Amino acid sequence: MSDPLHRAAPEASDADPRGGRRGAQDALQDPRRGAWAKYWRMVVGDVGAGAFLWYELVTGLFGDWPGALGYWLRAKFYPRLFRSCGRHVVFGRRLILRHAKRISLGDDVILSDGVVLDARGQAGDGIRIGDRVFVGLHSVVTTTDGTIELAEGCNIGAFCRIGSYGRTRIGRKALLAAYVYIVGAGHETARTDIPILDQPYTTRGGAEVGDGAWIGAKATVLDGVKVGEHAIVGAHALVTQDVPPYAIAVGIPARVTGSRLDRSPAGG
Would strands 247-250 and 255-259 be described as parallel, antiparallel, or unpaired? Predict the structure, then answer.
């Protein structure tokens, strides 16, 4: 499945003279800009030279530093990269940060090694990560002109991908197993005279995983879909429509096969 959020954030100055907005390939090949300007725009966005130099300095010096000393150095110097950063945040090695001034971190957040946080764009609120959120190894959280919220205490497994062009939320204490894909955008496909890549982004409002829900390994939740609070989605499921609270849904496409309320322990 193609991911439109892998394309660079459209900026006002990236408008195609023929109309519409530019994707990553057009923006990075724009002859009006040099390589330095493209790198600046892609990595840190519309910030001053001081913020850009601080990003280059601290990520270059400390981003890959191993061991406890590396964790301490990143805890000391990384917080200034972000829009806001709470206390006792753990920054793993080799983090990839894009437009960090559009990212907020709560208290006691853990970002494992290789995590990608990409909040490119100008619209929306970027990425908001609540208190005590865990983001597993090499997981990707990416939004283009949108908002992604990882609510308090949620747990994102290894190699997950959460994207949005609108608004996507992972609820409080929600659990995403490894390789889960939360899709918050799509491609327009109506025209057949031009490649899909050159057509506009679309969104059905983003995706939502409710408080306390559990999404099984390698499951996919599509744009415009809400998984209700405390629901369970089975491994490898493809969720194309809403899942009610406390429901159990499995399969491709996912179908509700039961309810957690039906098997609650006596007196529970």
Answer: antiparallel
Q: Which residues pair with 243 in a beta bridge?
A: 227
Is residue 195 within 8 A of residue 157, CB to CB? The reply is no
Query: What domains are there in the chain, each with its CATH number?
Result: 4-10+34-263 (2.160.10.10)
Sign of CA dihedral 107, 102, 173, 179: negative
pTM of the model: 0.84
Mark whether 187 is an active-site residue: yes
Which residue out of 6, 99, 138, 187 is catalytically annotated? 187
DSSP collapsed to 3 states, 64-83: CCCHHHHHHHHHHHHHHHCC
Per-chain mean pLDDT for the chain:
86
Q: Beta strand 103-105 with 84-85: parallel, antiparallel or unpaired?
A: parallel
* Structure-token pair, residue 30: 């724009």
Q: Does position 182 have pLDDT exceeding 80, yes or no? A: yes
Measured CA to CA in angstroms, residue 76 lies from 72, 136, 148, 157, 186 at distances of: 6, 21, 26, 26, 39
